[in-house]
Amino acid sequence: MSDSNETERRKLAAVVYNPVKIEVDTLRPVVEAEERAASWEPSLWFETSEEDPGGGQTKQALEAGATMVLAAGGDGTVRVVAEALQGTGTSLALLPSGTGNLLARNLSLTLNDLEHSVHSAFAGGDRTIDVALVDIHREDRTHTKHAFLVMAGFGIDAKMLSATDDELKAKVGWLAYVQAFAAVLRDKNLLHARFSLDRGETRRMRANTLIVANAGSLPGNILLLPEAAVDDGKLDVVILRPEQLVGWIQIFVKVLWENGVLSRTRLGRRFRTREVKALNYLRGEDFRVRLSRPEEIELDGDPLGKAIGMVVRVAPGGLTIRVPADVAEEGEQEGTSLAEADSGAS
Predict the structure, then answer these.
(1) Over the stretch 122-141, which tens digit does the pLDDT of each residue have?
(2) Which H/E stretch holds residue 145?
(3) Where is the DAGKc domain (predicted)?
(4) Between the CA of residue 78 and those of 148, 208, 279, 280, what are the distances in Å?
């Protein structure tokens, strides 16, 4: 029997956990029970720290031969672990914990059920999703490369995250963002920028908020970008530029009513209005923006300081996610049906 066959059959998980978000003494016996039931090797355990929020630990797990990494923590832990796993083929399992759980929400995964999440990791199947790769440019001409799974942005969302009180968030969850949102609304500074989509012509914009997304849903079941999907090979861009109160009314009606209600049914989609002046959507595979001055930037709910610009491109199918077995099976059946349809059309 060849070594390659031995490697293919090996099943080894690694748990990268944030000790602030996760009670490891509660998590460990659940993981151990599921790994035994699924005939996996004993899992590896890596604790994150302020100095290394998960990237280094994930690389250690890969070097040790892990075939699946369980990210146990908030959105920041998930993003950093995914950044290290992107393009490797090693699957990522989500153990949602924290306030946002942005990726888990967009994948319609179960929240706040540790046993179910761990069981889905060891007994589930794989689904590939896109990853957004971003090159962040700083004012001092340096730049850093990252990945995100849901959204990156400048403007109100980034300022809101920077202004959110961590102690309040720990007590009341995502509602803490409401207080921060009210505070940043008083900031009259606008974004002045030049941008291009798919390396086309450079355009100018003045906006309140700019978001580049790989998925469309926010906490509170708010559907910001109704056309966005994690596996469509596209980036979705939304530009918010309200003028006075009427602009905010347009945005709230569009997002909360049209996106949140009408867009969720086939019949409702017939009644959607055209794009409004205060809110514009773009789609593409490559988005580049340069600001007139440094502004706060966020990736998947993590504030990353100030930046002068960014280049974002999509990596289709760049990450493998563990999902419940029935969800993985449905995805395979849909893929087969599409393949058969394409064959019949050719």
Answers:
(1) 999 999 999 999 999 999 99
(2) strand 143-148
(3) 8-138
(4) 9, 28, 29, 29
